[in-house]
Design a protein that fits this description.
The protein is α+β, with helices and mostly antiparallel strands. It folds into two domains: 81 residues, SP0830-like domains (Alpha-Beta Plaits, 2-Layer Sandwich), CATH 3.30.70; 85 residues, Alpha-Beta Plaits (2-Layer Sandwich). The protein is 33% helix and 24% strand. The chain contains six helices and eight strands; from the N terminus they run βαββαβαβαββαβα. The chain has a four-stranded antiparallel β-sheet with strand order 2-3-1-4, with helices on both faces. Helix 1 crosses helix 2 and helix 3 crosses helix 6. It is globular and about 50 Å long. 33% of the residues are buried.
Length: 181
């Protein structure tokens, strides 16, 4: 059994793609996943899946089931408990920033190519900084995420890769939930 964290892109943000977490839990349980838990209303689920299933198959199955059962088209990005531990450990900003509200992680659906990565730069006039690490981007936004131009939409446009961003508190909470298994 592998413990996964599913990060659903764009769920319950700005009134779009509404999914009740109770419905999401029921959907995951109906798919045969175990120990299903959700966190917040923004599309975060922790669950166990058989090791025999490839992560890409699990994500595609969840996307299809959400579309079929709930009528919402969504991108699902999966991470394991171990990969979230790595995410927390390799943050270049966590040890330097005392305010966790200034830290975020953008999870990418795939590792960008060198050509895609070269298109990602901090917009002019920004105080924000980023570090690309494989299939995630660590963000330090001193002015706050709500004010930065270095947001999820900007990153997706530049890289051409689906992405979803979570704040540092959420990443830690999801790691803790996943580590319980």
């Amino acid at each position: 059994m592998t413990t996964y964290v599913a990060l659903l892109r764009g769920i319950n943000v700005g009134g779009n793609a509404k999914i009740a977490m109770k419905d999401l839990r029921g959907l995951f349980e109906g798919m045969g996943f175990e120990a299903v838990r959700t966190y917040l209303q923004s599309g975060n689920a922790v669950f166990g899946a058989p090791d025999a299933q490839a992560p890409a198959e699990v994500a595609t199955g969840i996307e299809k089931r959400i579309a079929d059962d709930l009528g919402v088209s969504v991108t699902v990005l999966l991470r394991t408990a171990a990969s979230l531990a790595d995410t927390l450990a390799r943050s270049p900003y966590a040890g330097r920033e005392g305010d966790p509200t200034k830290l975020h992680v953008t999870f990418l659906a795939q590792k960008p190519t060198a050509e895609q990565s070269a298109r990602l730069e901090v917009p002019a006039g920004e105080t924000a900084a980023f570090t690309l690490a494989g299939d995630e981007i660590h963000l330090h936004v001193p002015g706050g995420y709500g004010r930065t131009k270095l947001n999820n939409a900007f990153i997706e446009r530049r890289l051409g890769v689906p992405a979803t961003t979570r704040n540092w508190k959420t990443v830690n909470a999801l790691h803790d939930l996943a580590a319980e298994d």
